[in-house]
Backbone:
């Protein structure tokens, strides 16, 4: 949200006399976005409001209601989502799905899970039962998504929540999903029942797996029949509130604009009375309600401490900067080159059409049996496998990307590897601060082979360091204390035998922004 606003702010500041129109499409727009956008002086038109104004003014005689959201049967089931066992629960209750399919053998279904590993495992076990199963997730071949979505059962992740129209061959009659938040529940429920039919055949059926406290409240309060709006209200009331990280926006949200003020200033001949620079200054102050000099001082402090990089980029890439200034012409800051990003490039021969993948290191190392290789070996694999433009694109990406390491996936683990970050005793002085630290290592104490490989991996030839936030609470304690979103990236750490938590880069700043107000109460 904040990154998008900075794009808009930069455009209207650099070219104030050009007529910009920003078209934003979201089923769940956040009120905070509109509040910040109004600070820019941008006129906001909501489509729903304009349609209502037109209907009230013209009162068209042919206006009438029509069926859009189809009726469906909903079953809400309890699942321990924290233990990532929804796939097991689905298989335990698969008899209910079999009864439905016995009555309606041509019915097609969609399963949405949060974990790629669970999605892959469930898809494999459903194939063993004899079903035609497609997969759509971050590690599947995107070019075959339409084919996979057209199969009898498609097992997917959040990839299918946006930009997929379940019509024609991709139409689904039953839906199974897990949901860790109210927004996710309504978003996933909306993947079915848009055929504008008052009596769909087969009848639509949905199984929703939710936390136990949510299932209890919904099943106790839901009526035999509810409207979509009534159900939405009940869902919103049933889930607990999750952290929105608004303090992050107020504390470091303007750093990207300040950064680009300095970049643009270098390309301007007139710096004292330059209207473009004056516009950016004013925009920064209006957007965040804080003086430009104050924000500049914070920018310089972060830069001096070498922790600026995460607040002006998204997972290692600054799209504003790369669009404004050609990659070859801009000097890459040494801070960027040495910053650790929590991803691994890995080669997976089980997907021969698209074996090269980049994914979160935690998933790859916990769920895959891997063999680490060098960057040069990965480049050699790309040169051997790919040709033409595809090869050049992959090579360019690998050359300009900064990740933890490179690996070849050799199989799937029966049980996830137990990993934690090893902290030195001296980290206590950095507790509750965002710092750049260069002495960290990842350990797998229950897997000697992986543990030895990790020791070799962390002997970097080049300088490598981490922008991190560390706190002496376990990830479960911290999640409960701050009501962190379910997919928020924090990792377990150990200092001697004590449980700690660690977050990197932008997540480190997000934790820091909200922990300041509670740290004195709990630490």
Residues:
């Amino acid at each position: 949200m904040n990154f998008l606003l900075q794009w808009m702010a930069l455009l209207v500041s650099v070219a104030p006399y050009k007529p910009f129109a920003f078209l934003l499409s979201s089923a769940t727009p956040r009120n905070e976005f509109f509040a910040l956008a109004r600070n820019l002086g941008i006129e906001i038109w909501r489509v729903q409001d304009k349609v209502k104004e037109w209907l009230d003014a013209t009162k068209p005689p042919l206006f009438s209601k029509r069926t859009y959201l189809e009726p469906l049967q909903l079953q809400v089931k309890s699942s321990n989502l924290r233990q990532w066992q929804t796939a097991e629960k689905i298989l335990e209750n698969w008899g209910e799905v079999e009864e439905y399919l016995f009555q309606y053998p041509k019915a097609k279904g969609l399963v949405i899970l949060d974990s790629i590993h669970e999605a892959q495992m469930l898809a494999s076990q459903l194939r063993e039962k004899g079903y035609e199963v497609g997969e759509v997730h971050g590690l599947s071949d995107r070019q075959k998504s339409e084919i996979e979505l057209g199969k009898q059962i498609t097992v997917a992740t959040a990839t299918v929540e946006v930009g997929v129209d379940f019509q024609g061959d991709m139409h689904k009659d039953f839906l199974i999903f897990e949901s860790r938040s109210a927004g996710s529940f309504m978003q996933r429920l909306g993947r079915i029942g848009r055929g504008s039919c008052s009596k769909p055949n087969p009848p639509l059926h949905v199984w929703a797996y939710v936390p136990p406290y949510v299932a209890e409240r919904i099943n106790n309060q839901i009526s035999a029949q509810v409207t979509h709006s009534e159900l939405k209200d009940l869902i919103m009331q049933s889930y607990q509130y999750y952290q929105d990280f608004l303090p992050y926006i107020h504390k470091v949200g303007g750093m990207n604009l300040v950064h680009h003020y300095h970049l643009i200033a270098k390309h301007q001949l007139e710096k004292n009375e330059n209207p473009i620079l004056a516009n950016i200054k004013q925009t920064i102050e209006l957007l965040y309600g804080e003086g430009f000099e104050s924000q500049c001082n914070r920018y310089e402090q972060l830069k001096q401490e070498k922790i600026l990089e995460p607040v002006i980029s998204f997972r290692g890439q600054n799209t504003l900067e790369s669009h404004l200034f050609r990659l070859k012409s801009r000097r890459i800051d040494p801070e960027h080159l040495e910053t650790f990003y929590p991803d691994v490039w890995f080669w997976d021969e089980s997907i021969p059409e698209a074996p090269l993948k980049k994914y979160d290191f935690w998933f790859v190392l916990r769920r895959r049996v891997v063999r680490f290789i060098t960057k040069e070996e990965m480049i050699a694999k790309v040169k051997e496998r790919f040709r033409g433009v595809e090869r050049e694109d992959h090579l360019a990406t690998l050359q300009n990307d900064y990740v933890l390491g490179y690996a070849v996936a050799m199989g799937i683990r029966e049980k996830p590897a137990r990993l934690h970050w090893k902290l030195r005793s001296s980290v206590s002085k950095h507790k509750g601060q965002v710092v750049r630290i260069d002495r960290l290592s990842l350990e797998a104490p229950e897997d000697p082979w992986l543990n030895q490989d990790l020791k070799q991996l962390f002997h970097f030839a080049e300088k490598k360091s981490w922008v991190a936030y560390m706190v002496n609470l376990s990830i479960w304690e911290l999640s409960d204390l701050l009501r962190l979103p379910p997919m928020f990236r924090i990792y377990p750490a150990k200092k001697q035998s004590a449980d700690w938590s660690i977050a990197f880069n932008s997540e480190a700043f997000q934790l820091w922004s909200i922990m300041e107000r509670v740290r004195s109460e709990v630490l």
Remarks:
- Residues 325-330 have pLDDT under 50 and may be disordered.
- Residues 340-416 form one domain.
- The radius of gyration is 25 Å.
